[in-house]
Amino acid sequence: MRGPAGTEAGTGARRAAAGACLAGALTLMLSGCAGFLVPAGEGEPEPTPSRSYPPGVHADELDLSGLPTPSGRPPTGRTPRATPTPGAVAAGDCPSSGVVVDMGEVQAALGHRAVSLTLTNCGRKPFRVNGYPSVRALDDQGEPLPVPVNPASSYMGTDRGPMEVMLKPGKTLTALLAWVSTPTGGDLIEGDALEIAPAPGLEARTFPLEGSDVRLLDELNMTAWRPDPPR
Prior knowledge:
The protein is α+β, with helices and mostly antiparallel strands. Helices cover 17% and strands 26% of the residues.
């Protein structure tokens, strides 16, 4: 009787142990497979989005202005320059003389052409003005052309002669530059630009001539600097 009882007892023990092992194995399998039962990314921190740039952009062209640095301050580097307004004088570009010229848009009337010239005191002191602009026509190589520039009236405006003015900082004077064709002028000369200065010997600026109607030159007439536009 002991033998069968012992055998039954041993068999029960083995069954209990096997059941325990099976339960442990199932527990390990479930815990090991827990990652497959959780939706991807759940419970994990969202990745930090990174900036993307179009293909072909070089490293020195990347805009890093918005990226933080370890110090919390924007990174240093090249500061983008603002696009200058055509004809405007940016801060720091004022010549040493304290005055600068500008040329306006071409005006047309009955086949005549003219442009308004502006003299601005961009300095900090009054500037004495008493005379005419200095104007030269240039070719495509920047060399002067034999185009006469006369202090005189034209169809587009009357020259009333020089007027002495103490031009205060920020104030402006005007003059008129007109295209003139004369019967004895001969063949017209094609110009590429005009070099204009407030007066002979002062800093000049170069303005390109655009359009066939203003590139062909015979003579140019200019009025003196005045507080009010010539009429």
